[in-house]
Write a structure and sequence with these properties.
Two copies of one chain form a homodimer. The first copy, chain A, is mainly alpha-helical and 164 residues long. Chain A has a single domain, classed as Orthogonal Bundle (Arc Repressor Mutant, subunit A). Helices cover 60% and strands 8% of the residues of chain A. Chain A has six helices and three strands; from the N terminus they run ααβααββαα. The first copy, chain A, has a three-stranded antiparallel β-sheet. The longest helix of chain A has 29 residues. The radius of gyration of chain A is 19 Å and the shape is globular. The first copy, chain A, binds a DNA duplex (23 and 23 nucleotides) through helix 4.
DNA sequence: TATTGTTATACTCTATAACTATA
DNA sequence: TATAGTTATAGAGTATAACAATA
């Protein structure tokens, strides 16, 4: 509003497009693998992985929504599919009767384990190996701050509906 | 098939997730901006930008498809919308009667110019400024090879339907 | 016969707003 | 009154396969 917008020189534009391109291509491949080998969408994969690696194997809807999805109804939809498939369970939260606790089932764990090897393979072949040697860490160092900035900032449409 | 898959240590996994997260968040914001200020989808924006910056202001469907979209029918759909909106024109290609040449109109140029300032602003604020100083170039150096690898490789579903 | 592009169709995903129930 | 989550609904985007026309 006050700072004159920088001209966004070709280098910068190029960085932006490179990022968007790589991500789109990678996501497309990854989604194909998840669908073919485990009948999962990428969002479902994120939910399953979050649960799988959590202490209790469970989480509240709200906590899943933050950082995975843009609208709460979208999460309800995806978790609904997971429940129908018997991969997760839904139950009222103990502490807060309003909340819903989602828990991964044994079948859910097996499904994730079924999918992981192929998933790693795709990510390795498509992203990590083509990366210049030992630069994965560098990538995280570049993108880490951006990620935090994006998560904190307003853009998320799962934007704290007034939360917290 | 012969190499034992590397275990994909946390650093690598983290790089992968950071990339996917940042891209998803960024894309969401960028799509919002394009929709609100110019009534364009991101794919439409890519098409328009490609045409805008090309010599003749035009390109064939096939050339647009490569690198923008995963299925040819998807491109037909998006270009159809652009044509309806008067932002591009479609005409049989001169050299090859099978082909269709898409050309940006004056209204199309104006629309892109209308959208660019806000677009740059979003990209600057959300991606470039949070990036460690002077690291845009570094990002391109990391992602550039990956992009080329992905473009060349099979994963594209707009995969040369036998092309060339 | 191969290539270019479109169409028809079906489906997945997403988002908004209205609604219920608990805190 | 504010928060958690669901539902209804509507719309945007995508992909597959069949198709027409040109090379």
């Amino acid at each position: 509003m006050s700072e004159p917008e920088p001209p966004l020189d070709p280098d910068l534009l190029n960085a932006y497009f490179a990022l968007m391109d790589v991500a789109a291509l990678l996501r497309h491949s990854v989604e194909q693998q998840l669908r073919e080998e485990g009948d999962l969408s990428y969002v479902q994969f994120q939910v399953m992985a979050t649960l799988y690696f959590s202490e209790a194997g469970s989480a509240r809807m709200t906590d899943l929504a933050d950082g995975i999805v843009h609208s709460r109804s979208g999460l309800t939809y995806q978790v609904g599919l997971l429940e129908k498939a018997g991969l997760v369970t839904r139950a009222p939260s103990e502490r807060d009767e309003r909340g819903v606790t989602v828990t991964i089932t044994e079948a859910g764990r097996e499904r994730l384990e079924l999918v992981m090897p192929g998933h790693r393979e795709v990510v390795n072949h498509l992203l990590l190996q083509p990366l210049p040697p030992d630069s994965a860490v560098a990538l995280v160092e570049l993108l880490g701050p951006v990620r935090e900035h994006l998560r904190a900032a307003p853009p998320r449409s799962a934007r704290p509906r007034g939360r917290r």
